């Protein structure tokens, strides 16, 4: 799977295998997850811009997800140009839990402007009922050519601390989201920043699929920083050119999701955010399944583990 392009037939076949395997899980595993964490979804499977909000909410509502995450700029676009963010959210009954936001942490000049933008997004997130800023530092190119985090230690840590304080000042929890192609991608970088940040303000919001794609041990990182975890992107990673940037519906990749979920059950009651299913959208026309079908595979995987969704 990791080395081949997958078409619609391949995905349907694999999803059937995934569901079949989950149906024969030992009963004690299913019981362990029964009536546990509410599960949310991020909206990037449906796209990255404001036009994707309503289609995403429609499918999330139909599948019974308990909350969702979008981008700060999407909230702002709907508030300022499309008649308001809250009406479309209330229409589908899936509350916002978190907003994905970033600031430049390597260029102080750009960082100041980004903090002002972040403050706007924080206010809008809070006003619409959100609780968490899923924060991703920016400033590197996608290929990170020539990047060495040690050379940027001061700006890197100071920039992220400043962003976390902005979110905290707005009554939100700020959770760091390591991401491929950003200043915090590798396992070494994750440990470095988490051990140097002011964790009174910056908490942790891992994306387990991103961690694996970046070469990290996601299980170890989740375990080591469990007391700081406030939000989670639950994502699987298969690798290869599969139409989803190498990611996959849950249960079809190499991330040890069951072990991670079992660890998170001890933390979930203390989290400000939520465990959220995520699958990155590839280019339009290249994704092997319609968004609803792709999301349903992950929904069914979690349901077969014992997680409950809205009727």
Description:
This protein is an alpha/beta fold and 311 residues long. It has one domain: Alpha-Beta Barrel (TIM Barrel). It is built from 12 helices and 10 strands. The protein has an 8-stranded parallel sheet. Strands 8-9 form a two-stranded antiparallel ribbon. Helix 3 runs parallel beside helix 12. It is globular and about 50 Å long. The chain starts with 7 loop residues before the first helix and ends in a 7-residue tail after the last helix.
Topology:
Elements: H1 8-23, H2 27-33, E1 39-42, H3 53-63, E2 68-71, H4 72-81, H5 85-92, E3 96-104, H6 108-127, E4 132-138, H7 153-169, E5 173-176, H8 187-196, E6 202-204, H9 208-213, H10 218-224, E7 232-234, E8 236-237, E9 247-248, H11 257-264, E10 275-277, H12 291-304
Parallel strand pairs: 1-2, 1-10, 2-3, 3-4, 4-5, 5-6, 7-10
Antiparallel strand pairs: 8-9
Distance between the termini: 33 Å
Named at the architecture level, the CATH assignment is Alpha-Beta Barrel
Uncertain segments of ≥5 residues (pLDDT<50)?
A: 1-24
Return the domain count.
1
* Main β sheet profile: 8 strands, parallel
Which structural class should the secondary elements be placed in?
A: alpha/beta
CATH superfamily descriptor: Divalent-metal-dependent TIM barrel enzymes
Q: Approximately how much beta-strand content do the residues carry?
A: 5-15%
The top-level CATH class is: Alpha Beta
What overall geometry do the principal axes of the alpha carbons give?
globular
Helix proportion: 40-55%
Order of H and E elements: HHEHEHHEHEHEHEHHEEEHEH
Q: Average the pLDDT over all residues and give the rounded result.
A: 90
Strand order of the largest sheet: 6-5-4-3-2-1-10-7
Report the strand count: 10
Question: What's the tally of helices?
Answer: 12
